[in-house]
Design goal:
155 residues
């Protein structure tokens, strides 16, 4: 599975770089989201924008969130246009990965002169397939990984 995610990450990153080289920094996040959706589709990748996920606590729905972009039902793209990525941006993406049951996200910042992207793998504690009709509801399960001080969390 790592090899598939590596190849998918490479394809997505190529799209991010193409969009950034074409548009450069300075636009709103929504402009980059639309341009990236075009580039992902041109590359033959299935991509959805504003995909809604439901967050559960103790079996009860406590909220909903819309993902910036979901690629191939397996990689979450969290887009930013900020001066610098902060810890809160990493934690936000980890929370989305946990709530969705997915194991890979890319944090992308378009506000720099060069495209700034970070690959965040997430080791989920329970197997959930968000696209399977027979899977349990997407659940936000408490877990200590949000306080992860791994090198990838500090990028």
């Amino acid at each position: 599975m790592g090899d598939i995610n590596d190849k998918l990450s490479e394809a997505i990153i190529a799209c991010v770089i193409k969009v950034h080289q074409t548009l450069g920094p300075g636009f709103l996040e929504s402009v980059y989201r639309r341009a990236l959706m075009i580039e992902l589709r041109k590359s033959g990748l299935k991509a959805e924008t504003e995909k809604e996920i439901t967050v559960f606590y103790d079996g009860e729905e406590v909220g909903r969130h819309r993902l910036d972009i979901l690629v191939e039902d397996s990689v979450i793209l969290e887009l930013k246009t900020v001066e610098d990525l902060a810890r809160v941006h990493y934690e936000q993406l980890r929370s989305y990965l946990k709530a969705s049951g997915l194991s890979l996200g890319l944090l992308v910042n378009f506000a720099k002169e060069k495209a700034d992207f970070r690959r965040l793998p997430y080791a989920r504690s329970i197997p959930i397939s968000p696209t399977s009709p027979s899977s349990p509801p997407l659940t936000h399960v408490p877990d200590s990984s949000l306080n992860n001080n791994s090198p990838s969390a500090k990028k």
